[in-house]
């Protein structure tokens, strides 16, 4: 029986090695499908995603690359540097203004993260491990849900820079130039997600100390390393201060760092066990399966850890430090810890690859862990495909998109809304800007009726209630529930 198992293992490794490029393309294509399929059909999410998109759109309209605005006013709520906005601007200019184009930079960033990760693992550990990691990455559902690959937030881009910096860190012992890549990626991560990037500093600093690599870095290398992140970040700071003074930077420090870490802001108060509960209870069976593989592998190979000391230290820090930092922070959000999933995928792939390669490995262990991984991949793959293939609908957003796109008659006009209230939800404002280039005003029915030339989005019932004061308007578009009208006062 053991001979048959070893033969299967050997055949599997030979098959992967022989057809590696084909398998890489197939799994990579599936990853691209997960990232891009029906990307523009999901409704825009209020708060972070919508506000992010509105800022990028307005920056493009204002020919601005430094100061982000919301509803054409300088934004001191979304306190992130402008790199991710500028990637979205590029997408808008290349693909037009739409929810699809808005999300493309995030989808590309996550696709690149998976490909770079698999390439790195293939070069360092083997082709079998590379394919395992790419499969795991492509079905790790949290990478494609809130705030990540399929949303227009900054997080997918941050994860890309975070991952490259960690990969470079693990290569410092072989090539000191990798230190500069760490510095550059830290600066890009900071210019994307602000203070979150300092987790990279904590991991990298401890890695250099615990591996003693810090003693091998020369003065010239230190200087160049420091320049790789101080120059880009410093350039942005100077540009922001020259245009806008210090208000944004002060708010970044006081609110986005000190307050967010010391208080549970915006209702995001959770217990100290929040992230552990999230991993166990929120559809991340693949991460749990990989965790089991890592646990068994750590026990079996504990005595050999010195042979891969730098890797053990690096991956341990990559998993533990973000978990500790964001557990201590009072404001807790699920996507804060997503970078650790990447490390879990890598280490799990390495151990599973070893189990499948080594002919001396206990057959029961190999078969059991392979089954656990396989079942988790199938289940999580099903969940992921079901998610990307079945976008939820928002009837109002759909109505607004269809009414505004290609309607040159109302382009760039003032717009009012009166649905739940006369205030614009951020998703409604973004849709109005992307598809109608509308200037969103506060005031509802009254504000619209007092305006010389504007459009109003409202409920059909509210329109009928106010039909007398709206009698000089014309209907642009309507459904059973909603109506868009235009004021035609002379």
UniProtKB/TrEMBL annotation:
The membrane-spanning stretches of this chain are: 20-39, 102-122, 154-172, 178-210, 222-242, 278-300, 312-329, 335-352, 364-383
Q: Name one GO biological process term.
A: lipopolysaccharide biosynthetic process
Q: Which InterPro entries match?
A: LipidA_mod_glycosyltrf_83, RgtA/B/C-like
Q: Its Enzyme Commission number?
A: 2.4.2.43
Bilayer disposition of the protein: Multi-pass membrane protein
Cite a GO CC annotation: plasma membrane
Q: Which Pfam families match?
A: PMT_2
Origin: domain of life: Bacteria
Pinpoint the Glycosyltransferase RgtA/B/C/D-like domain residues.
Answer: 80-236
Keyword terms, alphabetized: Cell membrane, Glycosyltransferase, Membrane, Transferase, Transmembrane, Transmembrane helix
Task: State the Gene Ontology terms under molecular function.
Answer: 4-amino-4-deoxy-L-arabinose transferase activity
What is the protein's given name? Undecaprenyl phosphate-alpha-4-amino-4-deoxy-L-arabinose arabinosyl transferase
Q: What is the lineage of its organism?
A: Bacteria, Bacillati, Bacillota, Clostridia, Eubacteriales
Q: Per UniProt, what is the name of the gene that codes for the protein in this document? A: arnT
């Amino acid at each position: 029986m053991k001979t048959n198992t070893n033969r299967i293992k050997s055949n599997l490794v030979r098959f992967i090695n022989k057809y590696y490029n084909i398998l890489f393309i197939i799994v990579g294509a599936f990853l691209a499908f997960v990232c891009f399929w029906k990307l523009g059909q999901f409704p825009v999410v209020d708060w972070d995603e919508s506000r992010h998109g509105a800022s990028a759109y307005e920056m493009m309209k204002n020919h601005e690359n430094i100061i982000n605005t919301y509803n054409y006013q300088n934004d001191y709520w979304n306190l992130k540097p402008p790199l991710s906005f500028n990637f979205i601007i590029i997408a808008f200019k290349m693909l037009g203004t739409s929810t699809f184009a808005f999300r493309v930079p995030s989808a590309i960033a996550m696709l690149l993260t998976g490909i770079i990760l698999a390439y790195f693992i293939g070069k360092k550990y083997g082709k079998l491990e590379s394919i395992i990691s790419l499969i795991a990455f492509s079905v790790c559902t949290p990478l494609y849900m809130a705030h990540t690959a399929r949303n227009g937030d900054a997080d997918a881009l941050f994860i890309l820079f975070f991952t490259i910096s960690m990969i470079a860190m693990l290569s410092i012992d072989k090539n000191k130039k990798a230190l500069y890549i760490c510095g550059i990626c830290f600066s890009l991560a900071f210019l994307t997600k602000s203070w979150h990037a300092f987790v990279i500093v904590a991991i990298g600093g401890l890695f250099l100390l615990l591996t003693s690599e810090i003693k091998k870095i020369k003065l010239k290398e230190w200087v160049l390393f420091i320049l790789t992140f101080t120059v880009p970040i410093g350039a942005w700071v100077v540009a922001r201060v020259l245009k806008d003074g210090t208000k944004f930077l002060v708010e970044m420090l006081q609110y986005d760092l000190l307050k967010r870490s010391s208080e549970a802001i915006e209702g995001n108060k959770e217990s100290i066990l929040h992230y552990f509960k999230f991993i166990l209870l929120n559809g991340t069976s693949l991460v749990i399966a990989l965790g089991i593989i890592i646990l068994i592998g750590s026990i079996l190979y504990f005595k050999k850890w010195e042979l891969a000391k730098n890797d053990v230290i690096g991956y341990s820090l990559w998993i533990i430090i973000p978990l500790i930092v964001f557990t201590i922070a009072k404001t807790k959000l699920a996507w804060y810890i997503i970078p650790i999933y990447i490390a879990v995928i890598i280490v799990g792939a390495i151990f599973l690859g070893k189990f499948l390669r080594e002919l001396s490995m206990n057959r029961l262990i190999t078969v059991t862990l392979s089954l656990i991984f396989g079942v988790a991949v199938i289940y999580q793959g099903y969940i992921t495909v079901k998610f990307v293939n079945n976008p939820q609908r928002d009837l109002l957003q759909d109505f607004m998109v269809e009414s505004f796109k290609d309607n040159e008659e109302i382009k760039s006009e003032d717009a009012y809304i009166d649905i739940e209230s006369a205030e614009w939800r951020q998703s409604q404002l973004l849709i109005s800007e992307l598809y109608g280039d509308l200037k969103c005003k506060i005031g509802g029915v009254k504000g619209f009726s007092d305006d010389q030339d504007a459009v109003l989005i409202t409920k059909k019932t509210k329109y009928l209630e106010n039909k007398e004061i709206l009698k000089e308007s014309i209907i642009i578009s309507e459904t059973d529930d909603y109506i868009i009208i235009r004021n035609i006062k002379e």
